[in-house]
Amino acid sequence: MRRKSLEATIGNIRIGGKNPIAIQSMTKTKTKDVIATVEQILELSDSGCEIIRVALPDITSAKVLGKIKEKSPMPIIADIHFNYKIALEAIEQGADKIRLNPGNIRNKEKIKEIVKKAKKARIPIRVGANSGSLPNGETLVSAVMREIKILEEEEFYDIVVSLKGVDIHQTVAGYREMAKLVKYPFHIGITEAGPLFSGSIISSIGCGIILFEGLGDTIRVSLTSSPVDEVKVAKQILQALDIRSFGPRIISCPGCGRAKQEFFKISYELESIISKIEGLSDKKIAIMGCEVNGPGEAKKADFGIVCGRIFTIYKDGRIINKTSSYNTAIKIMEENLYLR
């Protein structure tokens, strides 16, 4: 069961409560390069990203945020570290949300200035702790709670929380503990998860546990790779847990010595065909290599093909065709997928 959290509004996106778990990413361009940053934002939007965060390392970057926002189809989050004046400028430029790191902006009076301006602009603040920037002696939870207390003292409750470590155990434990302390929505992720392959696995396990326990409200997968890859992995995590659907569920066996030689070829070709057909997001498609598990899985799917001694094609649990021709099998599957 999903945790009952408060809601937060980020531009035109609402997170928390019963709202869909939103996918976000972060641009990897130099933010002061407005053209390059906007191009990446548009690419991310096309890939399914719903909220975008940009790094503001200096005042110059903050001063162009308004120009970026004008061309962004997504809400813009300003990522702030060290200098509270950058946060003030970002709010002035129209940021839809501010991310503050409790590990490097600790002066209470400076934080209050940011809160006052965010409150006037009616935008949320994410209190986002990372394991790599924790003050000595503090944990992810204690650092976040210290800053939340400052915000609440100013009667500011439009808060989002994140507690990201590089260690899965530390991160999961942090979210579990925080869920007992506050009702604010959770931004989840494993920070600095690594390169595409290993980072995707680490993120899938870590975020998967947190989501399975109902603790997430928005997700960012952090990879040393294209931000579009981050969005793709986040979508797959949500889909694998049946939280959201972004495309059909393809069920295919790993293949073994029983599989026909064409099995791998037909799997790749059908996957390519499926990716180009709209309206299949709620469908299950089985591509199976032999008669052991193939018929059972194909019968349970909306569409299926078993590559045994001959190609056996299924639709809605029944056999609709058998053929020994590879090209005919592809044609029949494609026609039925389009007809759906």
Total helices: the number is 12
What is the strand tally?
Answer: 15
Query: Please, how many domains?
Result: 2
CATH topology of the largest domain: TIM Barrel
- CATH class (first level) name of the largest domain: Alpha Beta
- CATH superfamily placement of the largest domain: Dihydropteroate synthase-like
Major pleated sheet? 8 strands, parallel
Order of helices and strands: EEEHEHHEHEHEHEHEHEHEHEHEEEH
Beta-strand share of residues: 15-25%
From the alpha carbons, calculate the radius of gyration and give it in angstroms. Answer: 23 Å
Q: What's the CATH architecture name of the largest domain?
A: Alpha-Beta Barrel
Mean pLDDT: 96
Helical coverage, percent range: 40-55%
Catalogue the unreliable spans.
none
Q: How does this structure look, described?
A:
With 340 residues, this protein is α/β, with parallel strands linked by helices. The protein folds into 2 domains: 7-240, TIM Barrel; 249-339, Sulfite Reductase Hemoprotein, domain 1 (2-Layer Sandwich). 41% of the residues lie in helices and 20% in strands. It is built from 12 helices and 15 strands. An 8-stranded parallel sheet has the order 8-7-6-5-4-3-10-9. The protein has a 5-stranded mixed sheet with strand order 11-12-13-14-15, with helices on both faces. The protein has a two-stranded antiparallel sheet with strand order 1-2. A hairpin with a 3-residue loop joins strand 13 and strand 14 (311-315). The longest helix is centred in the middle third of the chain and has 17 residues, at 196-212. The protein is elongated and about 75 Å long. The model has no long low-confidence stretch (mean pLDDT 96).
